[in-house]
């Protein structure tokens, strides 16, 4: 069923959080049978608008109509009764409960309490089967706690789908998924669309937006600035609508630096890693590519001493013990983790403290740094990364996701590291901020640091890297250098197309 009458209409939406006007007269209109993108820079109000519709944020003012009928949505429960379901990057699953019970949570017959195991199993069996390609051999009884983050996200999506929503909000719900998992989610979203539902899709991945969305609403600073037909708009135009005119990031195919090797790794193994060799020079940006989940994050965590691994690591010719993040940090190794939700911040503490903490730990044993210096250092990072904040004293939990990620990034930059490990550092970061981060990554390298960057976006690897190691099942499968680094070659190497024809094999790129 495809209908042109708006299933969802939000207008005159205002929301203020303390000093931040998150939405001002924002609006959105989406038809049934439509995937509607909700786009905008970090902090532009996308999540807030979605949450107003999902009943989890109470607006200061709003008019909401569903299929032409004015409605009041005072709570998530009220939204659920209206057929509205939402999935976020932050999960709402109960870790100690089974996959099956998590799936039925929220769609159980309320008055009757919990479903019996048998009834629950019957209820979720078709959904588990549908999701199997993205879940692997996950079973009804497995505890959610034991699942990989991507699998948990899939369960969260399954939970929303079981409610058979007529409006489904996916708010960065694909950010932690592998490509094959994203493909399944898209398949399901298209089925929902066929059935006449409206899907509101929030993502910073332009390729996902152009692939999936029919129309899109674009927010800037809490205001709806445009509504557009996605197939009729080029990605460049979408970017321009989102951020105004930003300076495009051009790939600079400079020569690979030929200074001494700064980071030398031999036979790094453990967990998913099956013996990785790597030599990287100061000034070099080395990317980790390949299908996701091939050991890229594990490699970075092992180099940071955060997981148990064996092998030899040297920085500037001196052996580094893979003992702990503290040891790594003392040797000038910094890690910017990808999962900004759970790693790398003290959510309740002020932004200033979050920015300063790693550099304080590195420089002062006593840990007391004059708050004037801390403040000056923090402010310099806020300026350099254009982090959108109210005040340095606000808790980091008050920031939008992308801005929080910039704080994590800034925290490590302040330590002036010699080896910078970046684990998908721009996940959930808007295109404008991405460009800023790329510039900073480049300037770090120009100052002599070695940068190792894992990215889930091939485009990012093409944009910033001097060399890309394509990982496959915990080992380096291929190496692409300079002009060889194209999205096409990366995909080919990741999928092992044209075996043996993917640039120098691992190990041959050594000094
Ligand atoms: N609970 C809150 N308390 C205080 N301020 C908040 C809260 N939630 C959001 N904000 C602020 O409201 C503004 C809009 O945030 P929102 O999360 O809606 O943006 P967004 O477009 O989804 O951002 P991102 O792309 O970074 O996720 C931001 O400035 C943010 O800091």
UniProtKB/TrEMBL annotation:
SMART domains: AAA. Residues 8-246, 241-498 form the ABC transporter domain. GO terms for molecular function: ATP binding. Keywords: ATP-binding, Cell membrane, Membrane, Nucleotide-binding, Repeat, Sugar transport, Translocase, Transport. SUPFAM superfamilies: P-loop containing nucleoside triphosphate hydrolases. It comes from the Bacteria. PANTHER family: CARBOHYDRATE TRANSPORT ATP-BINDING PROTEIN MG119-RELATED (PTHR43790), D-ALLOSE IMPORT ATP-BINDING PROTEIN ALSA-RELATED (PTHR43790:SF3). This is Sugar ABC transporter ATP-binding protein.
